[in-house]
Design brief:
There is one protein chain. The relative contact order is 0.18. The chain has seven helices and three strands. A three-stranded antiparallel sheet has the order 2-1-3. It is elongated, with a radius of gyration of 32 Å. It has a domain at 76-116. Strand 1 (43-51) and strand 2 (54-61) form a beta hairpin. The chain is mainly alpha-helical. InterPro entries: Trp_biosyn_TM_oprn/chp (IPR019051), Trp_synth-assoc_CHP (IPR011746). Keywords: Membrane, Transmembrane, Transmembrane helix.
């Protein structure tokens, strides 16, 4: 006998795929931004400058070399949150921004992996010679760590572009409670004076006019 696919299982498969892609995008996006920000604060390059007393050690953090990865990591985080606040075309644009942020982090980190401009400027300041350059230049692996963070953000953006249309969105209304229908005032019995006085106290017209 041939097994017949259950309709419910076929309908539930897109929902499961959407939940998995959403979880992966959130994880990769947040983790990638954290990695890129952390890497930007680490030492990317080191060398020495020639001064009167001999060789002076110099170091440059990622933020000294380029501020692009840290800035785009913050943009990526904002875009990751904004994906759930917009719908349709807006969600597509925000997802594209998320992907471009990741790609920009990768490009900036890889281009700056062998850059010596920041250390040359520090060498010129330390030696007092504007033409001085850094000596014994070496680089660390942190630029490549930042590039990995950008790759994670890029994957999150691509997932948002591919599956984002099926993800949930934030509600546009923030309700503090359920609105209850107002109770209709009971007609005043003209033969009961106490009800007439109560209606007058409430500002109602006991005659119903």
């Amino acid at each position: 006998m041939t097994a017949v696919p259950h309709p419910r299982s076929e309908a539930a498969e897109p929902a499961r795929t959407g939940r998995r892609s959403l979880a992966v995008a959130l994880l990769f996006g947040a983790l990638g931004a954290a990695v890129a920000l952390l890497a930007s604060r680490q030492r990317w390059a080191e060398g020495t400058a020639s001064v009167a007393g001999g060789a002076f050690p110099l170091t440059a953090k990622g933020s000294d070399v380029t501020g692009v990865p840290a800035a785009l990591a913050i943009v990526g985080l904002a875009a990751l949150v904004a994906v759930f606040a917009v719908r349709r075309a807006g969600r597509f644009l925000v997802a594209a921004l998320l992907a471009l942020s990741g790609a920009g982090i990768m490009a900036a980190a890889l281009i700056s992996a062998s850059d010596s401009t920041a250390l040359d400027e520090k060498a010129a300041q330390a030696s007092g010679d504007t033409t001085a350059t850094v000596a014994a230049l070496s680089h660390t692996g942190w630029p490549y760590v930042a590039a990995v963070g950008g790759l994670l953000i890029l994957i999150a953006g691509l997932l948002a572009l591919r599956f984002g249309s099926g993800w949930p969105a934030m509600s546009g209304r923030y309700e503090r409670g359920t609105d209850r229908p107002r109770k209709t005032a009971r007609p005043v019995d003209p033969e009961r004076p106490e009800e007439i006085w109560k209606a007058l106290d409430r500002g109602e017209d006991p005659t119903g006019a």
